[in-house]
Amino acid sequence: MSGLLAQSKEDESFAAIVAARTARIDACLELALPPADTEPARLHEAMRYAVMSGGKRIRPLLVYAAGDCLGIDIECLDVPATAIELIHAFSLVHDDLPAMDDDDLRRGRPTVHRQFDEATAILAADALQPLAFEVIATSGVLEDAEKATLVALIANACGSQGMTGGQAIDLASNGRNLTSAELERMHGLKTGALLHACIMSACCLAPRLKRLGITAMDDFARKIGLAFQIRDDILDVEGETAVIGKPAGSDQALDKATWPALFGLAESKAHCATLLEGAMRDLDYFGVDAEPLRRLARYIVERQL
To answer: Does 11-302 carry CATH code 1.10.600.10?
Structure first.
């Protein structure tokens, strides 16, 4: 068990743990990204702008917390944590483009296509995706079999049966009244797939994990992925632009299919609470070792930004 986790159980606050892990993933991302002054400099500057612009780093935090639960060395967890955050950054750049959501703000700053230009934004995102897999392939701490498993997991999570497919369904759903099952499927692909990969990437590095443990992690990840997106939709309605870092009400302006739009705020909040309760039960299998993961799950569902 890592020293950081042991300390957290005794006297370190959850906020301090988050800060320490956020600093760690930021350092890993700095190492992975090409220097801004290396040619083509404008492209590299845009890549760094997209990645090193703050953000909650929820996905790497999930990787680390799941790894803590399973007793995995943090140096091994750095690899999927870095790769998945690069994939996430790539997806945000594409989501913000005029052809998609046409957003002007991301994390309180101009979106990449506004700060640079549309072509540069597309190229920066295109470069971030293969960089994620390069991080895995060139890792000096993982075995070849672990690398192959992680590549397959993350590629599936961001492909047509994952994040990209979910975005396609989202675009086709604007203005439509979806059923709860249809909306859950869309959210499960667009947002949930990559969050699911965060949890399952830690399982890929735990060869002695029993089938019951894998099932518990899988169920937990799916519930938290859906709850995360519903909470995001709630914040789009209730949040303020200056707080959430992107234009409030943008989903409604685009007539997007969201849980609050289709079922109301009260039902959305109730469903989030139900999903969180179920996710907590899934972690009972791991006992006290899952406490950091429980705290992070509560933060994800109850966050205000």
So the answer is: yes
